[in-house]
Amino acid sequence: MPPVRRAVPPVLLACLLMTGCSSVQLGTPTPSTSQNPAPGATAGTGRPIAVGAGPQKHYTVQQQPAPGSCHYRLEHGEPLQDPACTPGAISPAVTQANLKSTICRKGGYTSGIRPSAYVTGKEKKLNAASYGYTGRMGDAEYDHLISLQLGGDPNDPRNLWVESADPGHKKGAGVNNKKDPVETKLHTAVCKGQITLAAAQQAIVTDWTTALTVLHLD
Which residues, 6+ apart, have CB-to-CB distance to 175 below 8 Å? Predict the structure, then answer.
């Protein structure tokens, strides 16, 4: 029996809005790991989204889930993360109160907090094994589930996964997915005050393919 998808409760959504690959393995997610609560943000399962370590001067390669323990889901043909392996994690450095000085500041925010390619390159290979990804590594993105421009943690393993290519993607064409434009639209809406940071984070961890629809941004 396929896993049951849970919609965002209307009451919770209203509250959030007002306050503030070429090879895909399918399977039932394993039980989720424990998480630390973050005020105002809840994952699609109803549990608090984890809080990561935040930006660091020196990033280290993070341990990844065991090989083959994570399983992609498909929605409208698009790959979604395994919520047990990749539930998302937010940065304590970004809050609703400091948006203007962090993700919404002029000149950008994300370039100065990204881990080096040396670190993420090693993590990507390990995470590909976690998800059983066997396609071209150059066609898959090592993706922040909650993007950095939405306050996602830069190097918490709960917030990073090997996102396989969109359906119809030409092999060898490099990374090109439909999740990135969704993240940009959510970021714009947050910075314009149309939705809260917590609402954007909630929508992206639940299902990035429906995030704009449930927040009435499509």
Answer: 138, 139, 140, 141, 165
CA separation, residue 55 to residues 1, 86, 180, 202 (Å): 40, 19, 21, 21
* Alpha carbon distances (Å) from 2 to 16, 26, 27, 71, 114: 29, 10, 8, 12, 36
Closest CA to 47 of 205, 215, 211: 205
User: Is the Cβ–Cβ distance between 160 and 143 less than 8 Å?
Assistant: yes
Question: What does residue 43 show for φ and ψ, rounded to 5 degrees?
Answer: -75, 170
Q: What is the pLDDT of residues 171-187, one digit of tens each?
A: 654 556 789 999 999 99
pTM of the model: 0.78
**CB count, 10 Å around CB of 28?**
11
> How far lies 210's CA from each of 75, 116, 160, 189, in Å?
9, 31, 20, 15
Yes or no: say if 178 and 194 are a contact pair by the CB < 8 Å rule.
no
162 token code pair = 């090997």
User: pLDDT tens digit string along 96-117?
Assistant: 999 999 999 998 899 899 999 9
With contact defined as beta carbons under 8 Å apart, do 77 and 93 qualify?
no
Alpha-carbon torsion, ordered 90, 93, 98, 103, to 10 deg: -70
